[in-house]
From TrEMBL:
It comes from Nonomuraea spiralis. It comes from the Bacteria. Pfam families: GGDEF_2, HTH_30. Residues 311-369 form the PucR C-terminal helix-turn-helix domain. This is PucR family transcriptional regulator. Belongs to the CdaR family.
Length: 385
């Protein structure tokens, strides 16, 4: 409720006029300081926390329940009702409530109405989030999940005691990270909207969630939900990392660290696709701990010049296939003579010896590390979603 009140107070201050927020059955949820025109209906609504049946019927007949955009309603002197501007609050096409302004003393300008309408997504989302709270107020759930992902064991106890997560169930964490998008308030809102919509569909998994500045976190009871469900729920393109399932909620921080790691690798290595499990990352599990300055010194010049990309792609394929010339020729559809020529050029330019096992290992790891840093982008891995 604190978030709703903050948004209401901020909007009232920006518009310079009082407002009142109701849920979809017109029970009062929040209101700003009432320092402007006021009628008996507004006064009674605040005192009784709901609107009278006669006024509700009048406003319903005016079309407020069907409205998809701000609507001006006429006054009703016989009811003691001044003209109003009604801004419906909707989330995924469902009506959640109404934002009300008294439209007199003076009337609202079109600019003010448009500014009120611009606040709808944030208000609707906050209102929807409040409606999801089960046993915990939403802000307390947020605090508990934040503590849980920091490794605070008491946070798990609070969530379980409040009935937000079953005591005897394992936990799995998924992290959704936007692709190539700078973090901002609009992005956070999109991530929050996607997770809240998904929570409704996954109620049997006892989902919990948290939105950080550049990624979103989903916790579910039991094995992980299919990552395609998370992709489908998100309004923006994301990559998804999946941590290993842990036997109890108190260990969620470990699964979260893995899921975040997997999402970071997936974002940096397009060839992995849209989703990756931490347990299946292979060598990338350790490479993210290294600096991209650790690459083989002989590769620096090749990585810096686009003309050498075919040589690097040939080298990586050769090393991926355990140094098999036959398998590499087949994979690249390259004549054996051309393959040997390219490998010889790599040896000359990188000042290395591919018959040396230590050199092959250093070169192989260096190419994977360069993928992570973005210094090396094979053509078949570019431009993917």
């Amino acid at each position: 409720m604190a978030d709703l009140q903050r948004i209401v107070d901020d909007l009232a201050a920006r518009l310079g006029r009082p407002l009142l927020l109701e849920d979809r059955v017109q029970r009062v949820i929040a209101y700003s300081e009432q320092n402007g025109a006021m009628d008996d209906i507004r006064r009674d609504s605040i005192l009784r926390r709901h609107t009278t049946a006669e006024v509700r019927e009048w406003l319903r007949a005016a079309g407020v329940h069907e409205a998809q955009a701000p609507l001006r309603t006429a006054g009703a002197p016989h009811l003691g009702l001044l003209p109003r501007v009604c801004v419906p609050l909707r989330h995924t096409d469902g009506l959640l409530g109404f934002l009300w302004f008294i439209d007199s003393g003076p009337a609202m300008s079109d600019v003010q109405v448009a500014e009120a309408a611009a606040a709808v997504p944030g208000l609707a989302l906050a209102l929807f989030h409040e409606s999801l709270a089960t046993g915990l107020a939403s802000h307390r759930e947020l605090e508990a999940v934040t503590g849980l992902l920091r490794g605070e064991r008491d946070a798990a106890r609070r969530l379980i005691e409040a009935g937000a997560f079953p005591q005897a169930q394992p936990v799995t964490v998924l992290v959704a990270r936007p692709r190539s998008t700078e973090p901002d308030d609009a992005l956070r809102l999109a991530l929050e909207q996607g997770l809240l919509a998904l929570r409704r569909r996954l109620s049997g998994h006892h989902p919990l969630h948290l939105v950080r500045y550049d990624h979103a976190v989903l916790l579910t009871a039991g094995p992980p939900v299919p990552p395609d469900e998370l992709h489908a729920a998100m309004p923006v393109p994301v990559v998804v990392g999946i941590g290993r399932t842990r036997c109890e909620l108190a260990q969620a921080a470990d699964s979260y660290a893995e899921a975040r790691h997997a999402a970071e690798v997936t974002a940096r290595v397009p060839g992995l696709g849209r989703s990756a499990e931490w347990a299946r990352l292979g060598v990338y599990r350790m490479l993210t701990q290294l600096s991209d300055q650790e690459v083989h010194p002989g590769l620096d010049g090749l990585l810096a010049d686009e003309q050498y990309l075919p040589l690097l792609e040939t080298l990586e394929t050769y090393l991926d296939l355990a140094g098999s010339a036959v398998a590499t020729s087949r994979a690249l559809r390259l004549h054996r003579t051309s393959l040997y020529y390219r490998l010889q050029r790599v040896e000359e330019l990188a000042r290395t010896d591919l018959k040396d096992g230590g050199e092959r290992l250093a070169l192989h790891l260096s190419l994977k590390l360069a993928r992570l840093s973005g210094r090396y982008q094979p053509r078949d891995a570019r431009g993917g979603d």
